[in-house]
From TrEMBL:
GO terms for molecular function: beta-glucosidase activity. Belongs to the glycosyl hydrolase 1 family. SUPFAM superfamilies: (Trans)glycosidases. The keyword rRNA processing does not apply. The keyword Lipid metabolism does not apply. PROSITE patterns: GLYCOSYL_HYDROL_F1_1 (PS00572), GLYCOSYL_HYDROL_F1_2 (PS00653). GO terms for biological process: carbohydrate catabolic process. It comes from the Bacteria. This is Beta-glucosidase/6-phospho-beta-glucosidase/beta-galactosidase. The lineage of its organism: Bacteria, Bacillati, Bacillota, Clostridia, Eubacteriales. The active site is at E374 (nucleophile).
Length: 477
C-alpha cells in the first residue's frame, strides 16, 4: 500500500516551542512565554496560578528554544532533504502585532515569516500555517481578560487580515486554532483565561469557546473572500475514547467524552451548536451570551477540512475506583490506563490501530477531508560517541501509525490530505517544558539546563522517514 503522489508528507512545529528570540525585533509577550518549566507549569497553563510576566524564580526554556528564528534556513534545508512536501508551522501573534491589536504591524515580524515562506517554497515545500497555536498576547489579557471578552474576536480578525494580506500569495493551507478543545483543559495556555475566586469556571470556559468559534468562523469567511484558492481547516486534539468495559454505563461515559472532545469541531464543520451541548451547558449552569447575527456568522464560516493531532486513544470508566488509575496523555485528565496498551516513558499509551479508528470516526461524523497534523513519540535520545542517534523506538512508533493510516486510506477509503509528524525537529515540550522529551527526527543540542551549542544532528529516523516519503509509504522497513 502507498499514498498517491498528491499526498502531503511533512512535519510540524509551533512557533512558541522552536523559534526562541522571544522579545527580539519588536515581538511582544505572549501566554506561552510566561508558562514556566517545572512543577508550576500546569498550574499556570490551567489558569489556577496567575503569571502574566516572567520572574527570576522560574525558568522558561521556550525563550530560546532551539533558536529556529536564526536557524530556519538550515532547518528547512534539512526538511527538504527528508523530502517534505509540506511544513506545518505557526505564526507568533505578537511577532506580527506586539500588543495583539496594533493598527500598524511589526514589519520585522512580517519580514521573518515572509522570508521563511520563501525558503519553504524554494525547496518545493508548501507551508501549512496555524494562525493561533496556544498564543494569546499578554497585553490583551491585561486589557480584556483574554478570550473571556468578545473584543478578542475583533483583535483576532485584525490579526488574520494582516496575515492574509501579507502572506496570501505564499500560503494555501491555514488552520485557525491549534487543538481548540484544549481550552477546556488548559484555559490559560489555550485562551489566556485566569480564574478568580467564586467565578463559574464552566461559564467562563464555554463563553470563551463561543468567542473563539466566532473568531474562527469570521477568519474562514474572510480568507475565502481574500484568498479564494486557500483551504481553511480546524484542528483538535483527537483520540477516540474507549469504554473501559462493556458495561452500558462505561459505553455511555465514553460517548459523552467523545462528544465533549468534538464539541468545537461540530460547530466549526456544521456551523451550529449540537443539541446535546445546550443541555449539557444548562445542567452545568452555563448560558452562553450570543449577539444577534452570531448564528449566521457560525453558519457562513464553516471549514474546508478537519485536521487533528493523534498521539493515543483514551480509555474511560464510570467506576470511581477504576478512574483512580489515570493515564498521563495530553492533558486529558479523566482518561484511565488501558490494560491492553503499552506506554511511553511519559505514560502516553501507544495505540496505532486507534489512529485508524479515529480517522474513520471523524470522517463518519463530518464527511470532510482529513489531515493528520501531529503524530509522534516523545522520548529520551542518546547521542553515541560517533554522533549517531539510534532512535529505533521512534521509527517503530511511526511505522505502526503510518501502517494504520495507509489502511484507513486504501482499505476504508478515508480522504486524507496529508501527514505531518510532530515535531520533525526537537523542540520544547508543550506539556512538560522539557527538551529531554524529544520528538524530532533532527536532534538539537539543547538541554534542560540551557546548555548546548544548538548543533543539528540527523537521527536514524531522519533517513527512515526520507525513504518512507520517497516511496509514498510503501517501504516502511
Amino acid at each position: 500500500m502507498k499514498m498517491p503522489d498528491s499526498f502531503l508528507w511533512g512535519g510540524a512545529t509551533a512557533a512558541n516551542q522552536c523559534e526562541g528570540a522571544y522579545l527580539e525585533d519588536g515581538r511582544g509577550l505572549s501566554t506561552v512565554d510566561v508558562v514556566p518549566y517545572g512543577p508550576d507549569r500546569m498550574k499556570v497553563a490551567r489558569g489556577v496560578m496567575k503569571m502574566l510576566e516572567c520572574d527570576s524564580e522560574h525558568t522558561y526554556p521556550a525563550h530560546e528554544a532551539i533558536d529556529m528564528y536564526h536557524h530556519y534556513k538550515e532547518d528547512i534545508a534539512m526538511f527538504a532533504e527528508m523530502g517534505f512536501k509540506v511544513y506545518r508551522l505557526s505564526i507568533s501573534w505578537t511577532r506580527i502585532l506586539p500588543h495583539g491589536d496594533d493598527d500598524v504591524p511589526n514589519e520585522a515580524g512580517i519580514q521573518f515569516y515572509s522570508d521563511l515562506f520563501d525558503e519553504c517554497l524554494k525547496h518545493g515545500i508548501e507551508p501549512l500555517v496555524t494562525i493561533c497555536h496556544f498564543d494569546t498576547p499578554i497585553d490583551l489579557i491585561n486589557r480584556y481578560g483574554g478570550w473571556k471578552d468578545r473584543r478578542m474576536v475583533d483583535a483576532f480578525v485584525k490579526y488574520c487580515t494582516v496575515l492574509f494580506e501579507r502572506f496570501g500569495s505564499k500560503v494555501k493551507y491555514w488552520l485557525t486554532f491549534n487543538e481548540i478543545n484544549m481550552l477546556l483543559h488548559m484555559p490559560f495556555m489555550g485562551a489566556g483565561i485566569l480564574f478568580e475566586d467564586g467565578e463559574n469556571e464552566e461559564q467562563i470556559k464555554y463563553q470563551a469557546a463561543h468567542h473563539e468559534l466566532l473568531a474562527s468562523a469570521k477568519a474562514v469567511s474572510l480568507a475565502h473572500r481574500m484568498m479564494p484558492e486557500a483551504k481553511l481547516g480546524c484542528m483538535l486534539a483527537a483520540g477516540q475514547f474507549y469504554p473501559y468495559s462493556c458495561s452500558p454505563t462505561d459505553v455511555y461515559k465514553a460517548m459523552e467524552c467523545d462528544r465533549d472532545n468534538y464539541f468545537f469541531i461540530d460547530v466549526q464543520v456544521r456551523g451550529e451548536y449540537p443539541v446535546w451541548a445546550f443541555k449539557r451547558m444548562e445542567k452545568a449552569g452555563v448560558k452562553i451570551r450570543m449577539d444577534p447575527g452570531d448564528a449566521e456568522i457560525l453558519k457562513e464560516g464553516t471549514v474546508d477540512f478537519v485536521s487533528f493531532s493523534y498521539y493515543s486513544s483514551r480509555c474511560i470508566s464510570s467506576d470511581p475506583e477504576v478512574i483512580k488509575n489515570k493515564s498521563r496523555g495530553n492533558a486529558v485528565i479523566s482518561a484511565v490506563v488501558n490494560p491492553y496498551l503499552e506506554s511511553s516513558e511519559w505514560g502516553w499509551q501507544i495505540d496505532p490501530l486507534g489512529l485508524r479508528v479515529t480517522l474513520n470516526m471523524l470522517y463518519d461524523r463530518y464527511q470532510k477531508p482529513l489531515f493528520i497534523v501531529e503524530n509522534g513519540l516523545g522520548a529520551v535520545d542518546r547521542v553515541e560517541e560517533d554522533g549517531s542517534i539510534h532512535d529505533l523506538y521512534r521509527i517503530s512508533y511511526m511505522r505502526e501509525h503510518i501502517k494504520a493510516m495507509l489502511s484507513a486510506v486504501n482499505e476504508d477509503g478515508i480522504p486524507l490530505m496529508g501527514y505531518t509528524c510532530w515535531g520533525c525537529i526537537d523542540l520544547v515540550s508543550a506539556s512538560t517544558g522539557e527538551m529531554k522529551k524529544r520528538y524530532g527526527m533532527i536532534y538539537v543540542d539543547k538541554q534542560d539546563d540551557g546548555s548546548g551549542d544548538l548543533k543539528r544532528i540527523r537521527k536514524d529516523s531522519f533517513y527512515w522517514y526520507k525513504k518512507v516519503i520517497e516511496t509514498g509509504g510503501e517501504d516502511l522497513e
